[in-house]
User: Which sequence fits this backbone?
């Protein structure tokens, strides 16, 4: 017979909202950063190889 699982520690709704806000702010900053030229070059090369195989 299995024992019921105990609920773990929970954050308050206020704490969850604060963490969510900070994560969204961080994500927005990351999304706004430009894509490095080297990565764009690699993506273009991969795209060209993909076109060749079609």
Assistant:
């Amino acid at each position: 017979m299995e024992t019921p699982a105990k609920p773990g520690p929970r954050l308050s709704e206020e704490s969850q909202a604060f963490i969510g806000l900070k994560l969204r702010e961080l994500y927005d900053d990351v999304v706004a950063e430009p894509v490095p030229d080297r990565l764009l070059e690699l993506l273009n090369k991969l795209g060209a190889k993909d076109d060749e195989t079609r």
